[in-house]
User: Fold this.
Amino acid sequence: MMTLKNTITAAVVGLTLTTSATANPANVERVTEGLIAAGMAIELDDNCGSVSVRMLRGLNFLQGLKSHLQDLGYSNDEIDAYIDNRSEKARLETIARQRLNSLGVRTDDPATYCTVARAQIAQGTQVGQLLR
Assistant:
């Protein structure tokens, strides 16, 4: 049985869409930045017990990214093809972790995840809006 957290993670993976020769959803900044923010929120949730991902807000946010691609003319096949691109997923995860590091996360200091998470929530950033 899939939990809501697994569902949101699957949605991130699912929206980490593959590229085709004629269209490349990875070049849509709103989608790329949204997926990075979602990845950052999930990483903070995974490493800070005092915050959690807002599941319904997260799912709605990710659905909005998919709808944006559809509004731009990407077909479901193009979007679905992007879902399986493991290298794109890895690239976005790397960017998300680099951004967290630049905000003060230190993998050798678990408390830094909570410090960054609380700061993101207080600042009302996209990452913070996906957390509570």
